[in-house]
Fold each of these.
Amino acid sequence: MFPLIRMLGFLPLRLSHYRMAVIPKSAGLPLDKDACLHNERLEYLGDAVIDAIVADFLFRKFPGKDEGFMTKLRARIVKRKNLDWLAEKMDIPGMIPHTDPARNQAKHLYGNVLEALMGAIYLDRGYRTARRFFIRKVIQKHVDLLQLVEKDPDYKSRMIEWAQKYRMEVVFESKEEHSSHATFPSFVASVLLNGKQQGTGKGGSKKEAEQRAAKKALAAVHTAPSEDLR
């Protein structure tokens, strides 16, 4: 528990919450034939706690910004891939029991454990401590707000805005693909501009595939002669 205490910066009152937080569903400990000990409920709670903390933090940090700006910035901070990355920066993977690596390959495993730990902190010490921990130990230490503000990875929205500006019809088509070698399904997306395909992309989710397809489509429309697009 010493690595955990070092990361938290305070002494936990109820260690049972934290022990449960680092047990992913894929590595759950059986209690009886109908029950299993894992962190799914804490993950659910922590997800809501993180959303509230980040929303409150951004509201105070950017008093002159509108709802759309704060919503986009919050989404970039709490998106699954970013939570995975933050968890790795915080050395959370080393706290997860890996007794059976084959069962411990769930998607977004590290980010899920980070959420569960936030749920544990909230139950153990309350919202104020959870907020102070996430702001000091996560946002201020590992999140580059300036970079997130300047970076706009929402290629789909930009593609839609571009199409509206030039009065062109844009359609996103996606389909799910299954492979016998893959644990999770993948998705393939296409961007059609006035019925012509301008970009395709693959991803682990429909959203990810559409973003990649939109990125390629944006690159295509910015280099193609305008008459070729109509």
Amino acid sequence: MRLFSGLVIFLVLCSCKNDASKAKVLKQENTTINIKDIKSDSIITTKIEFPYLDETNAMDFFLEYEKDNKEQNVRITTTKGIIEIKLFNETKFHRANFIYLTKREAFNNTQFHRVVKNFIIQGGNTDNVDVARKRRKIGHYLLPTDTKRGFKHHRGVISMPSSDIENPHKLASPYEFFITQKDSYHLDGNYTIFGKVTKGLDVVDKINAVATDKADWPLHNIYIEKVDVF
């Protein structure tokens, strides 16, 4: 009788433990990625888990993520040409965020949705339902400003706009960015500069020259086809 009771208790505990584990896993997203094995020159398919990012864990996540993901160079392929950007190590959270979202393909098939003549081109927004679905899985979070690194809004820097959500600290939307087409020093101190264009300023100029509607949205959509780390 004691053995039977002990067995019941053991099974109940295991069941509770498994339920707890399942609950924890539900907060993770299993993603299949292809990794190149340098030794064998073959492609290995593996599954990795990413946490759902929100205001409670995003900064801690990027603090750890940036330690093992030191890439700085990204290539933005648009319907107007290619823009290459070097991200700054000094703004590590914003660099890590951009690298992470690039690797998660969160910018692919988005648009330059705001073009202000002789000022900026702003990208990352989209009405693509597949992109929206992907971003909902990645998370919903904002990034704090990091404006005291000595960078200025010179022509060709990449900076992060404030969220559409009104907030006193100008927290930034992680999925959007803007590139200055002209020196815009009145933005200094309010928005985080986290990189600069190293190639393709002529493409920035082409995008800035397109016709827009009254809301600054290009009359003919300018797509960000993909963003790559290189």
